[in-house]
Amino acid sequence: MGDYVEKYKCGSCRYFEYAGRYEKGYCSWYRTYYHADEECNHWEQKENMESSGGCFFTSACCTYKGLPDDCEELTIMRNFRDTKLQKTEWGKKCIELYYREAPLILQRIERHSQREQIFEKIYSEIRQIVKLVKTEMDQEAVIRYLLMVMEADINSRENTIQK
Questions:
Q1: What is the C-alpha end-to-end distance of the chain, expressed in Å?
Q2: Does residue 80 sit in the same domain as residue 135?
Q3: CA 154, CA 34: separation in Å to the nearest integer?
Q4: Are 34 and 25 in contact (CB under 8 A)?
Q5: Whole-prediction pTM value?
Q6: Which of 20, 65, 139, 161 has the most CB atoms around its CB within 10 Å?
Q7: Domain limits for position 142
Q8: Cβ distance 109 to 119 under 8 Å?
Q9: CB 82: neighbour CB atoms within 10 A?
Q10: Beta strands, E only, the chain
Q11: How far apart are CA 50 and CA 65, in angstroms?
């Protein structure tokens, strides 16, 4: 996944293979290497760029739990992002930050020795956030989600997860 998930940049093209924040990734279309933030002349959208995707943590947890792509958690979180967050400047900034950092955090979690425990902890938190969204406690939901991402980042870098 690209460092910056921005349309028409290499990092968001379906042919781009992310190699690291400061490394050039491989473009399988042109068969050469580019930085994620370079303009893409043959850009094609990745499957996770629009409302059917982009909920990296929720998608990863739901996949881990064996839940379908249209489960309650994903449906509510995608709708919240598309109908509430996208409509505010601070919401757009949160999404931009999340799209930049979440793929990197998930890569570390996937390699972590306590991967299952981390996903269980994240999924439990997502369930609480979904409850907040359903009761229209939008700011609380965003704050809790950002804190969850920060905690997951910390846990993905440590040998043991924090309680």
A1: 29
A2: yes
A3: 29
A4: yes
A5: 0.64
A6: 161
A7: 56-157
A8: yes
A9: 14
A10: 16-17, 25-27, 32-34
A11: 23
